[in-house]
Design a protein that fits this description.
By secondary structure, the protein is α+β, with helices and mostly antiparallel strands. The protein has helices at 30-39, 90-97, 115-121, 128-131, 159-165, 200-216, 282-295, 305-309, 340-351, 397-405, 423-426, 430-440, 449-454, and strands at 6-12, 19-25, 43-46, 62-65, 72-76, 81-85, 102-103, 138-144, 150-153, 174-181, 183-184, 189-196, 221-226, 238-245, 299-304, 327-334, 358-364, 378-386, 409-410. Strands 15-12-14-13-17-18-16-19 form an 8-stranded antiparallel beta sheet. Strands 5-6-10-8-9 form a 5-stranded antiparallel beta sheet, with helices on one face. A 4-stranded mixed beta sheet has the order 1-2-4-3, with helices on one face. A hairpin with a 6-residue loop joins strand 1 and strand 2 (19-25). The two termini are 37 Å apart.
Length: 458
């Protein structure tokens, strides 16, 4: 079978909560992409499939898998601009650019996503207050409209279409190529400093102070790992990691400036979910959370940069541990004055015995121009929940209402079950995006299970 042929297979998101048997086309030429689009009445665009929920799963029609379009077209080592096809993984850019002193300025929790997926989700990292999200560093992109016509977009060339595509969840067209501005670094290491806090109030206070420094420094990365299974006044205590890319003066004499990557990540291989409920139970989750808290120590440490930026890549089998039902990650953002919502959400989950297996809290800065981009200034909390505990599909709707009332929003790239009636409240620029989306999709070909479930398309 050639890459342009279609085949039927089962697909899911990274969280493995939703599975669909569908036809998949995987063209390896631009002409093949055009032919596939024009031959199909409805198309869902898919990259590496790392969205947690159903963002890259089909509603109706065929899935267009872009991972065969994975060439690095050019790399200007003088100014750090790299031009790539949309199927290139962030990992591949890092492996080529880092030894030459260049780094992607925004890295989410994993390197195993495509550039097209990073743009469509407008992903953010732990340095968002200073660096912004991924779309801020896209110089231009080439987009294929649903009528088969390619067009080049940039902040200065059809800005409405550009910013509708940044964070547009793959619903404005097929991203064919993109030019990304990289960022200078001296080494492939990071200096990490770990802090311990004793309560949620303490955690928010430390993060608030660090956010001020982050705003002035795009290399300042911060994340809090919450011990959400502590109770009473210690609820929300955390291990807070802050780190910077190391300079040459930070390295001991015997340490090479760029560490060698050993072996091949399990992210390249499919991993089956464990049968039944998997390893996750309330007892194991509580024990793991307590162990992480008690065994971790504050202080400074030198760590490989890719390990610091992309901790998910050390746990590719993480969703498998949640068993056959899979993992739901619920991530939301609220404005800086609404930090109390974080505590209320943690309290709600504890009261309803929906114990998070993992919870992280980060600072967010000013959002990008993306009309459906997730980040807003303030706080973002992400909790990993065993899907089998959410027997009621409306179990998290109370949190949706709390977030929306606070002027916040859920992250569409992670979403699996949010209240569709609240999406226009959370994303007030949705009608503007819908008008531009309709212009770029005159033949109404683009769709996804996420778009249908949430009513994103007019």
């Amino acid at each position: 079978m050639t890459p342009d042929d279609s085949s039927t297979t089962e697909l899911s998101g990274w969280g493995r909560t939703t599975h669909k048997h569908t036809r998949v086309r995987r063209p390896d030429t631009q002409g093949g992409v055009v032919d596939a689009v024009l031959a199909e009445p409805e198309v869902t665009i898919r990259g590496a499939g790392k969205s947690y929920g159903d963002a890259a799963l089909p509603g109706q029609g065929v899935v267009l898998d872009m991972t065969a379009r994975d060439r690095i077209i050019s790399f200007d080592q003088g100014n750090g601009v790299i031009v790539v096809e949309a199927g290139v993984l962030l990992k591949e850019i890092a492996e080529q650019a880092l030894p030459l002193g260049w780094l992607l300025p925004v890295m989410p929790g994993t390197e195993w996503i495509t550039v097209g997926g990073a743009i469509a989700s407008d992903v953010h990292g732990k340095n968002h207050p200073g660096a912004g999200s991924f779309g801020r560093h896209v110089r231009w992109l080439a987009l294929l409209r649903s009528d088969g016509v390619p067009t080049q977009l940039s902040p200065g060339q059809d800005a409405d279409a550009f910013w509708s595509t940044i964070g547009g969840m793959g619903l404005t067209g097929v991203i064919l190529q993109a030019a990304i501005q990289l960022h200078r670094v001296e080494t492939g290491w990071a200096v990490r400093e770990r802090h311990r806090t004793e309560s949620l109030r303490d955690t928010l206070s430390v993060l608030r102070t660090l956010a001020t420094h982050q705003e002035a420094d795009p290399d300042h990365h911060v994340v809090a790992w919450l011990d959400v299974h502590s109770t009473g006044t210690s609820l929300g205590r955390a291990l807070i990691d802050e780190f910077h890319p190391a300079t040459s003066t930070d390295l001991p004499a015997a340490v090479p400036p760029f560490p060698e990557r050993r072996g091949r990540s399990t992210a390249a291989r499919p991993i089956r979910s464990l049968p039944g409920p998997g390893l996750m139970s309330r007892a194991t989750i509580r024990a793991a959370s307590a162990a992480r808290w008690h065994l971790s120590r504050a202080g400074r440490q030198l760590v490989p940069l890719h390990s610091a930026l992309c901790p998910l890549d050390r746990a590719e089998s993480w969703p498998a541990a949640f068993g056959r039902a899979g993992l739901i990650q619920y991530q939301f953002a609220v404005p800086p004055e609404e930090g109390h919502v974080v505590g209320e959400v943690l309290g709600y989950l504890a009261t309803h015995r929906i114990a998070p297996a993992l919870a992280t809290l980060k600072n967010l800065g000013r959002g990008s121009g993306g009309l459906l981009s997730f980040p807003i200034p303030g706080w973002t909390l992400a909790v990993d929940l065993p899907a089998r505990w959410l027997h009621d599909p409306d179990a998290l709707r109370s949190i949706d209402k709390l977030v929306a009332a606070a002027g916040g929003r859920v992250y569409l790239a992670k979403d699996a079950l949010s209240d569709p009636d609240l999406i226009p409240v959370m994303y007030p620029r949705l009608p503007v995006w819908q008008r531009t989306q309709a212009r770029l999709d005159p033949d109404r070909r683009w769709t996804s299970a996420l778009a249908e479930r949430l009513g994103l398309l007019r």
